[in-house]
Amino acid sequence: MPNRYRGEIDAELGGRRRTLVLTLGALAELEAAFGAGDLAALAERFGTGRMRARDLVRIIAAGLRGAGETVSDDEVAAMTASGGVTAYVRIAADLIAATFEETADETAP
Known about the structure:
The protein is mainly alpha-helical. It has one domain (8-100). Helix content is 56%, strand content 9%. It is built from six helices and two strands; from the N terminus they run E-E-H-H-H-H-H-H. It has helices spanning 24-34, 39-47, 53-66, 73-78, 84-100, 104-107, and strands spanning 9-13, 16-20. The protein has a two-stranded antiparallel sheet with strand order 1-2. A hairpin with a 2-residue loop joins strand 1 and strand 2 (16-20). Helix 1 runs antiparallel to helix 3 (53-66). The mean pLDDT is 89.
């Protein structure tokens, strides 16, 4: 079961349930891949809501690697998801939200 407080999500990819998380290392990987100068720039890029298919592959692959899977971007690009493109977008959006959004408990006084 994924721990949302640690930024984990679960998703079905390649015919099985998997956990994804954007660890600090995974975020550093994405900063480099997207040419973002810092985490704020990375979050801003994700906040636009505009993503290419390659962006989705990079985000999902980084999330899988952050959770301990040894997968390449090309392997992730070949994975299927029930729901097609919409499922990939949802997975990436859920992962980004789990990473960058505060939960109500974290903001409570």
